[in-house]
Amino acid sequence: MIRVLLADDQSLVRAGFKALLDAQPDIEVVGEAADGAEALRAVRQLRPDVVLMDIRMPVLDGLAATRRITDVPDLADIRIVMLTTFELDEYVFEAIRSGASGFLVKDTEPEELLRAVRAVVDGDALLSPGVTRRLIAEFAARSKEPAAADVLAGLTEREREVMALVGIGLSNDEIARRLVVSPLTAKTHVSRTMVKLGARDRAQLVVLAYESGLVRPGWLG
Questions:
Q1: 167: three-class secondary structure by DSSP
Q2: Where is the HTH luxR-type domain (predicted)?
Q3: Average per-residue pLDDT in the chain?
Q4: Do residues 182 and 171 make contact, with C-beta atoms less than 8 angstroms apart?
């Protein structure tokens, strides 16, 4: 079972998500929270697999709560999906930097919500190529001089190549076509790269690609 915690200050939003998620044979809502502080306590107590976290909440907002969760090594396996009212929420970029695995708009289709929960548990980032490219553009606009690339020392040449393609927003299928390999091979390279770098998911791999200097602003195609 995939164990989910719902963190949103709107009870109707929580009720709607809970009804949908609990109706699935492989998903269980194990707790709810109405603010970020409550979410933090619930995460520590319940250890869910996934947290659906509203960005804007009282007491402690979702962004601060996400930082506190991802900063704790014992909670590193918990995946956080940010909930927002608008797809281009001004805080989405910072949420990804803080360790969130992706984001959803609250009026998303039910099938997309279910796919999202299952995807992040499998280690995938909940970011469509279009959304990824917007995040990358935002990162490029804010980025400073990249840090030393020592972090990449353990990667093979192919893994660096794959990481660079992830960094410019390509999906596994697009990477496979670019490198003339199978989608499964592309996915394997991405997974091995994430393991070597200790990246939680694809979203963090994008950030690392920029911070290491492997991908530079202006490389969007």
A1: helix
A2: 148-213
A3: 83
A4: no
Q: Are 149 and 214 in contact (CB under 8 A)?
A: yes
Distance CA(104)–CA(106), nearest Å, equals: 6
Q: The pTM is what?
A: 0.70
Which tens digit of pLDDT belongs to each residue from 35-86?
Answer: 999 999 999 999 999 999 998 899 998 889 998 998 888 888 899 988 877 6
Tokens for 187? 């996915």
Higher pLDDT, 26 or 136: 26
Q: Tokens 């708009």 correspond to what residue?
A: 105
Q: What does the alpha-carbon distance between residue 51 and residue 67 come to, in Å, rounded to a whole number?
A: 13
Distance, in Å, from the CA atom of 186 to the CA atom of 184, rounded to the nearest integer, reads 5
Which of 106, 156, 94, 101 has its CA nearest to residue 125? 101
What's the distance, Cα to Cα, between the start and end of the chain in Å? 40
Structure tokens at 151: 């972090």
b/e code 5-26 from CB counts within 10 Å (16+ = b): bbbbbeeebbebbeebbeeeee
d(CA 178, CA 163): 13
Which amino acid is residue 145, in one-letter code?
Answer: E
Confidence label for 218 from pLDDT (cuts 50, 70 and 90): low
Amino acid in position 169: G
The amino acid sitting at 210 is Y
Contact 194, 155 (CB under 8 A): no
